[in-house]
Amino acid sequence: MNRRELLLAASALPLLGMGGVTSRALAQGTAELAIGVIYPMSGPSAQAGVDAGHASETAAEIINNAFDFDLITAADAGLPGLGGVKVKLIFADHQGDPQKGRAEAERLITQDKVVALAGCYYSSVTATVSAVAERYKIPFLCADSSSPSLQRKKQKYFFRPAAHDEMFSAAMFNFLDAQRKKGHKIETLALIYEDTVFGVDSATIQRKLAGERGYKVATEVKYRASSPSLTAEVQQLKSADPDVLMPSTYTTDAILLVKTMAELGYRPKNIVAQAAGFSEQVTFDAVGDKLVGAISRASFSLDLAAKRPFIGKVNDMFKTRAGRDLNDNTSRELMGLLVLADAINRAKSTNGDQIREALAATDIPGTRTIMPWPRITFDAEGQNPDAYPVLLQYDGERLITVFPADVAVAPPIWPMNR
User: Fold this and answer.
1) Sign for the pseudo-dihedral over CA of 124, 248, 42, 387
2) Are strands 158-159 and 117-119 parallel, antiparallel or unpaired?
3) Order of strands across the sheet with 140-142?
4) Which residues fall within 8 angstroms of residue 211, CB to CB, at 6 or more apart?
5) Which of 233, 286, 228 is nearest to 259 (CA)?
């Protein structure tokens, strides 16, 4: 399915009292505010796109209705700054293709008259879509793409509430350092990563951090994304036999990697993954029996619901749609749309420059989010510097927070394969 539209409020509000709302805010001639949402809804990462759709729909439900919990945009039905206008999401499928993403962004802006864009899972697609948004002076909310190079393009309309891979990788190495201090032997690492912006940027950062922190990269394996076979690559990893395997892969490749390791009899001593495919439920459904003890960096921990009960309520809303809990990706996608809607509401306008100014002025305490961050603000590059990551470990049934110590609910299993 290349395009689908979801109407997320049945009732349209009258135009009276809407002040700064322009024709761009109106979807199909009604008093609805249109936001373009671009994800891979077909192709090898279709499940990630479908889940992103569920996360986006859940965010719109929170925005368009009133709830009795202290989460941004939840208290009022619609956007009071624009007279209670409801949000309508217009979905587009980029199919994992940056050029398709570019074309879909153009269509959403010029034909559907969206006031902002959000997406895109693949960092390579985010690069093209954010460039289109910049050209049209339309705010782009980078919900989940984590390449640090994205915010360094000096784009005025680019905003990312979540961490980038330098921040994620630093947390991963902080964890390794902590394990060393406990007396665990960690000397060698192996990097395996796909040949996309995401994979290459991740490996570049991890290579640098390994040198700075005193770890030896025993082998580094770069492979073609969506490769039909990873046999040669796994043989190289098995031969190196590192203390920690650090993969940066999307879902289809993550499943293939784990299956190939099992077929070739390679059991990594430890896995500390750059999320992506190692944060998706579909991966654990397919090969979870081979991933007990695997660790992944993350932006989100459902364990935090014990301190903020509304996180559990939001998770239940998402789970009703998706049949699974929020994870690293879907939590960022949901929270990103709430941040965007909050800015539009404060801007009291659908003008791109005014929304951009409201985004730049964002200052949201972490307690009003579903994330384990102290706050959401944006620096001059549109990056939230306070998006502190956590590390989660799969215990065979669920992902449990094991780092940092102040939010951990259990000590890590180390090594994962004893």
Assistant:
1) negative
2) unpaired
3) 3-6, 86-93, 32-39, 117-119, 140-142, 158-159
4) none
5) 286
User: Of 358, 365, 382, nearest to 72 (Cα)?
Assistant: 365
H or E segment to which residue 229 belongs: none
Q: What are phi and psi of 397, to 5 degrees?
A: -130, -40
Which tokens is 378 given?
């944006």
Q: Which helix (H) or strand (E) holds 333?
A: helix 328-347
Domain boundaries, the chain: 3-163+304-376, 165-298+390-403
Contact 357, 373 (CB under 8 A): no
Which amino acid, residue 179? Answer: Q
Superfamily of domain 3-163+304-376: Response regulator (3.40.50.2300)
State the DSSP string of 192-225. EEESSHHHHHHHHHHHHHHHHHT-EEEEEEEE-T
User: 165-298+390-403, superfamily in CATH?
Assistant: Response regulator (3.40.50.2300)
Query: Within the chain, how many helices (H) and strands (E) appear?
Result: 11, 15
> CATH topology of 3-163+304-376 equal to that of 165-298+390-403?
yes
How many angstroms separate the CA atoms of 148 and 195, rounded?
16
Q: Which two three-digit tokens encode residue 35? A: 């936001």
pLDDT in tens, the chain (418 residues): 333 333 333 233 233 233 333 445 444 445 799 999 999 999 988 999 999 999 999 999 999 999 999 999 999 999 999 999 999 999 999 999 999 999 999 999 999 999 999 999 999 999 999 999 999 999 999 999 989 889 888 899 999 999 998 999 999 999 999 999 999 999 999 999 999 888 999 999 999 999 999 999 999 999 998 899 999 999 999 999 999 999 999 899 999 999 999 999 999 999 999 988 898 889 999 999 999 999 999 999 999 999 899 999 999 999 999 999 999 999 999 999 999 999 999 999 999 999 999 999 999 999 999 999 999 999 999 999 999 999 999 999 999 999 998 889 999 999 987 6
What secondary structure does DSSP assign to 139-172, as a single string?
Answer: -EEE-S---TTGGGG--TTEEB-S--HHHHHHHH
Tokens of 114: 């969206």
* Burial grade of 108 (CB within 10 A; 0-12, 13-18, 19 or more): buried
Helices (DSSP H) in 225-327: which residue ranges?
A: 231-240, 251-263, 281-287, 309-322
